[in-house]
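Purpose: get a first structural picture of the assembly so the mutagenesis plan has something to point at.
Setup: two entries, given in the order below. No constraints added.
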Amino acid sequence: MSGVGTVSAQRAQFSQPLPLKGGGVLPAYELVYETYGTLNAAKSNAILVCHALSGHHHVAGHSADEFGNPTANLGWWDNIVGPGRPLDTDRFFIVGVNNLGGCHGSTGPASPNPATGKPWGADFPVVTVEDWVDSHARLADHLGIDAWAVVMGGSLGGMQALQWTLSYPGRVRHALVIAATPKLSAENIAFNDVARQAILTDPDFHGGHFYEHGVRPLRGLRLARMLGHITYLSDDQMAEKFGRRLRTGAGSYSFDVEFEIESYLRYQGDKFAGVFDANTYLRMTKALDYFDPAQDYGDDLARALARARAKFLVVAFSTDWRFSPGRSREIVNAMVHNGQDVAYAEIDSAHGHDSFLMDDPHYHAVIDGYLKRVTP
Amino acid sequence: MNRNVERADFDLIASWVQPGERVLDLGCGDGSLLKRLIDERGAKGYGVELGDAEVLAAIRNGINVIQSNLEQGLAGFDDQTFNHVVLSRTLQTVRHTERILGEMLRVGREAVVSFPNFAYWKNRMAVMAGRMPVSEDLPYEWFDTPNLRFFTLLDFESLCDKMGLVIRERQVLDDAGRCIVEEPNFLGSLAVYRLGR
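Result (structure tokens, whole complex):
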């Protein structure tokens, strides 16, 4: 089975101001997106794939790099999208979109602020999961999609799928909420705050206006990613992959890079800091922290979810300690309480939170088995 | 497994479910019973299953299956959420017998329990002949059986009495799926109970 081949991004411009949950409006904005497969005549076979913290619109296939090489840059969830794959492009029309505030083409902190002509920087608003879903809905309008067959995503993407069913109950038939949570725990927020502090205290951050200083807060962003990355893996997996192995075979009793895990984390941190925007990172983590659909319902999740009309598949992973299976069960329990349609699979996986991106045969069979029953 | 016997078990359970009622099937396997209760009886069904292959099969069947371990009880299910909580041919595989029966009647108004009767005359004959029974309702060898608890109708009813569970109805089937009235603990291969508080 091969994937979707070489793909290219598209852009949609929105001139109608978007009111934001945190107050204020985004006057005009642009969303960058990709599509795979063909929208059917009834426009009933569309799947929206929402991305997680560091994701973007390039979900599947290869996109050309800056040198024009058409087989560069494989999409972040390519293993699940394509002809004969669980998100079967022979049956479904799949849409990936870069969220507002992102750094992969949609309007974000590095985009020009129409009021000043300079990059938004720190003045770009703090956007929420609800705001993203509202912007996705306008993209759906733009594409002529009245209701999605499926809205899905992992981690923060799963939270968007959940919010979709609450913000637009009549516009989602199925929601796949994977490795997600109905709200962050204090521990989750604590990790996010340390990551933010790493960025905010980097002298090159310049209060978020680093673009005009010609620098980027690489040290802060690198630390933020290193910390985040630890929470995406499992203890078992780290032990197996790195253990206590040293790069040189013997300790040097210094503070150089000695252990393999140190080397790996620094590599991941450097790679990420080289391509990601610090202001986007701050906003993505804030969107995570603020997400709490039960807040307006006296912390009663069942009441909060009662207005959802979609059928749900909730998936969690055994070694995910960031958003553990118990957090997914909170969603499931609330839906069972309400008598709503929900299936729940707890996948045995060694890869921690990142399991949702892995090419695990049973996990993919579960997604495939569910989607096979979704009428396009 | 003999289709007649399986059907007979399911037939009884289906006849007890009214349209629109909420059913929780514990150890639902691929969801065959639930699918029948939903399609034929208009029930609103959920299943609980632990095995990966069974959960996948249930998802393929369009069942609201929840992957969870019965041995850990039914935490997360609210009190009195279901009209019927079904445990079909599974009680003998559960270690925490009293806990699961108690949990069934916590989350449901009625517990429906079916299990193979160890005192069925053919099983007794097997033991008399010096071998552990292998039959339609006990289709495993001793070394590969998932069954942990070996009990009879009388044993089960004695436990119900001890736990204060009310037997609302009992149906007993032989290994051809025929209803047994006389000498059920001797002539019955499979028992199906409706229990309440």
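Chain A has a mean pLDDT of 96.
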